[in-house]
Design goal:
Number of strands: 27
Largest sheet: 5 strands, parallel
Shape: globular
Number of helices: 11
Structural class: alpha/beta
Helix content: 10-25%
Distance between the termini: 55 Å
Strand order of the largest sheet: 5-2-1-9-20
Radius of gyration: 22 Å
């Protein structure tokens, strides 16, 4: 691998070379944004999985009908390998030093330094100690292992009824797999949507042929299934731990301030707080300061897709009208339903339902308590509301919606917007 030299004085606003740690969507879009803005300096990329960049959402949504990764060159038309000067797909970053004039990243093959560092090292699936027998799903290799374990008639236990757990449960059940989902909280998606809205998805499981157990805690995972806190054994041929993901930042220990979950606090332009502005973080690793929503955790697909444009514009000192405050966005196909979540729900918000959840389609809006400001909108099987919800979260502040009009599913959502 090539390292930079110090032949010229450093101009922090115009780096001559950029090192990107990570080779996923956020990293790919960062390199694409650099080239689109005319950056002709050196770009080096470090990856860990040994394969070209691919899209992660299809790993669960299309677990059984797409047996190869959805390559980003095909999905978004960006070829990382062609745009970067060097791409090392099997070279993990091991440590970071900020003691010198430039960020330095240690790898098994040596140390690299650059004028600017972009941390896009992604996340990894959580597997609690003692659950070594459980599979996880975050990488293409994970999907291959899980796919091989699922055949019609096999028994699958999914621990966790979050986004990934629900998606896999529905796909597996539709393929003839016997599926049991064990959720420690009182409702599916409670961590993401809260108890009230999460409970509205409970009936989907039985309708899809999935057995759902809520309020049950797994205490042991073995080769023959899982043991619950009340002593019950749920037998299984395969167990999937779908209990969340954490930012992959252990390699940064001691070099940058990290949150309890490993994330890095960044400003509106993805500059890491407590570090030189030549150090940026984007994608799953970033806990971003949003003028509209407050602190936004990474893991949102749109953040990885659109966030790098604002990062690069600020890093290169070439600002324009690129929106830096990308709204959180989650889309999910689960148990026969299409979900889209825009914004950031909070537990203290007031939930207003749009339509009847027992019907064919509905939506939920999270209002800031005692106000007409909306912090998040979830649409369920309502494609006509998706575009309107997305546009509502493009302004400088939270959208304001008339509650009475917002409740009426027969009125276009845009009509509820207040001036």
């Amino acid at each position: 691998m090539s390292a930079r030299t110090d032949d010229e004085p450093l101009d922090p606003s115009r780096p001559r070379d950029v090192l990107v740690v990570g080779a996923g969507l956020a990293a790919t879009q960062t390199v694409a944004a650099l080239r689109e803005r005319g950056f002709d300096g050196r770009v080096v990329v470090l990856g860990t999985e040994g394969v070209a960049p691919y899209d992660r959402p299809p790993l669960s949504k299309h677990l059984l009908d797409r047996t190869t990764p959805t390559w980003l060159t095909d999905e978004i038309g960006v070829d990382l390998l062609a745009l970067a000067d060097e791409v090392h797909l099997s070279t993990p970053a091991r440590a970071l030093s900020l003691s010198g004039a430039h960020p330095e990243v240690l790898t098994d093959d040596g140390t690299l330094s650059a004028d600017a560092l972009v941390i896009a090292s992604g996340a990894h699936a959580v597997r609690p100690p003692g659950w070594e027998a459980a599979l996880t799903l975050h990488t293409a290799a994970d999907a291959d292992r899980l796919r091989a374990a699922l055949q019609p008639g096999t028994r699958l236990v999914v621990i966790g009824a979050g986004w990934i757990g629900a998606e896999v449960a529905g796909v597996a059940a539709a393929a003839g797999v016997e599926v049991v989902v064990v959720e420690a909280t009182g409702a599916p998606l409670a961590g993401a949507l809260g108890q009230v809205v999460g409970e509205l998805t409970t009936s989907w499981y039985a309708a899809a042929g999935v057995r759902l157990l809520t309020g049950e805690h797994v205490v042991e995972v073995g080769a023959n299934g899982v043991s619950l806190a009340d002593g019950k054994l749920i037998e299984a041929d395969a167990v999937l731990a779908a209990v969340g993901a954490r930012p992959t930042t252990d390699w940064l220990a001691g070099a940058l301030p990290r949150e309890d979950d490993g994330s890095l606090r960044v400003d509106e332009h993805h500059a890491v707080l407590g570090a030189p502005r030549t150090v940026r973080a984007v994608g799953d690793v970033a806990l971003r300061r949003s003028p509209r929503h407050g602190w936004i955790p990474g893991g949102h697909w749109d953040g990885a897709l659109r966030g790098p444009a604002g990062l690069v514009a600020d890093l290169l000192g070439t600002p324009d009208d690129t929106p830096a405050d990308v709204a959180p966005y989650v889309f999910s196909t689960q148990l026969g339903h299409e979900l889209a979540l825009f914004g950031h729900p909070r537990t203290q918000d007031e939930v207003v339902l749009r339509g009847n959840p027992a019907g064919e389609s509905w939506a939920a809006l999270w209002y800031r308590r005692g106000s007409d400001e909306v912090g998040a909108i979830l649409t369920v099987d309502r494609p006509r509301d998706v575009g309107a919800a997305r546009r509502l979260f493009t302004g400088a502040g939270l959208p304001r919606l008339d509650r009475t009009l917002a409740r009426d599913p027969g009125r276009p959502l845009r009509e509820a917007a207040l001036a």
